[in-house]
Amino acid sequence: MEKTALIQQPDGYLNKTPIFQFILLSLLFSLWAVAASLNDILITQFKYIFDLSDFATAFVQSAFYGGYFVVAIPASVVIKKLNYKFAIITGLVFYIIGCSLFFPASHMATYSMFLVALFAVAIGLSFLETAANTYSSMIGPKEQSTLRLNISQTFYPVGAISGILLGKYLVFQEGASLEKQMALLSPAEAHVFGLEMLQHTLEPYKYMIMILIAVLILFAVTKFPTCKPEVEKEDTAAENPGILDTFRYLLGNKRFKKGILAQFLYIGMQTAVWSFTIRLALHLNPDYNERTASNFMIFGFIAFFIGKFIANFLMARFSSSKVVFAYSVIGSILLTYVALVPNMSAVYVAVVVSLLFGPCWPTIYAETLEVVDSKYKELAGAFLVMSIVGGAVVPAVQGLVSDFVGSMQLAFLVSTACFVYVGVHFYGEIKVKQAATKAEPIEA
């Protein structure tokens, strides 16, 4: 039987999905998940080594997601001028450089140097996410773009679980919690002990560097389709708009702006919940140490993984907007429980909330991208990746609220408010789509 040739359509989508390239592309989602989940480990580790407030610990996420904000547009320009593959290779190189910076950071033993290393990692990840999210949605038939991105995102929790396991066994140590151990030491002894603990933060990044080099080589030797819209020579100026024209178009697109805000708040909420889950477990059960409390993050990412499969199943039968709206309503109720019920059940409910995060990012991303004309997609994708800066802002706000009200648990209401907005956004999308369906002419 003759195989169907791979054909790129004028809008950049393909007639079929090249399986090997799609799998390799999807593996990138697990690689940036490792880095993101290791941040949750670092926040807990740095809290006591550097004697930080909850607001200050959130700077780990601020440095990390701030890198996305700064680099997303330059990454989109690289994609527009060159291609997705080149942007991915660039991202992998910066990712390797960022991991390597953890070595001088551990010897300098300053919080600021670790933030610099995390910012460098984020530069690489911004290239990867700006390229891979849009590329995944386009590397196949257009009608399957949202489903394809959801499938790629299923690789994310695999990487997230791997990152937590690396942190649990390579960064966190046996025995009492860091807080209890350091409380028994003199200032001089605590300083020496802190330096020893910082050396453990290097271990996960050693393994990551080796894996990243292998993936870099695979991408370098594999041929990928361009998946970029065709441009007629006589219409080059009109069909290939500049950054300012694209910015004006996007600024006037109300649905796109609402999608950007939804993505900003969703990523912020997800990051905040995951950043403070280990701390919440340590707070509600003082007998736990960091290694034991990190189990809840493993359970959370398993729930996240399961939630994606459930969402993919539901999206094959119902509209993606309705699925995410339902998830948002349930998630808002559960996060309210996490904030208000002062016992260990709140931690278990926080784990269940991760199940409801599953379809949010890829669905917001793909559906927001769908309301944009194809000639504006590269920069539109960059703005969507820039909205990840919510991961820098919302955890810091939640940490600030925690310090102000004196309750890290009550501060989870910040995340609750974010999930409420996501639900409101998708309720609006459902109404828009219903109105559009009614307005379509009925064929005779």
TrEMBL record:
The chain crosses the membrane at residues 20-38, 58-79, 86-105, 111-133, 154-172, 205-224, 264-284, 296-316, 323-340, 346-367, 379-401, 407-428. It comes from the Bacteria. It is a multi-pass membrane protein. SUPFAM superfamilies: MFS general substrate transporter (SSF103473). Keywords: Cell membrane, Membrane, Transmembrane, Transmembrane helix, Transport. It is found in: Cell inner membrane. Residues 19-434 form the Major facilitator superfamily (MFS) profile domain. Pfam families: MFS_1. NCBIfam families: fucP. PANTHER family: L-FUCOSE-PROTON SYMPORTER. This is L-fucose:H+ symporter permease. It comes from Carnobacterium antarcticum. The gene is fucP.
